[in-house]
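>> received
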Amino acid sequence: LKPVATAIGSAALRYGPKLWKYGKNLFIGTAADAGAGNVVMQDKTVLKHINENGGVLKVNSNGTTLYASYTGISSQNLSGIADIDSGAKTAAVAANKCIVLLAPITEAVSIGDTRVRMHTDLRGSFQVGDYIQIIDKDPHTIPSQDDTPATIPKHEIRRVIAVPGSGDYIYVDEPFLFNHAINSCGIDRLSY
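>> returned
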């Protein structure tokens, strides 16, 4: 899935097949210190669910969605942007770039968990049959006898099998294979 920004209006940005509404987790910023990975947001108050202590963002670069992490948000400054995907930081700190902050989880996910806790109103946007994607900035080291063990991203996708009428959890079809800390990841809803 490679969404491309197709139109910007006063209330919404059309981003591929989905509609990301201004006022949720979408903003357009200007680079304040591209070398340090800092962006000044036009209006932080529009962000609905953020983790001020770090998380994950996505940005479009030439038709490809790239992921980067950030270490904090203070006032209108998004700081500590670093690549998860090669080139994501460069794309994110470009002037007037559209950046989507992935929604945070509200409870760490542990190996073997079959549910994800999030903000209640965000949970309500998921339906049975959708997919939840967890993008994690922390790599997983593959155990080996090599001098430099290989690492892989801790990204996971699971199918949603239950969305209770109340509460903060959604339930998925298979247990998660990795731990995901609150400040190290973000979630994205996928539907096909």
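>> The two ends are 10 Å apart (CA to CA).
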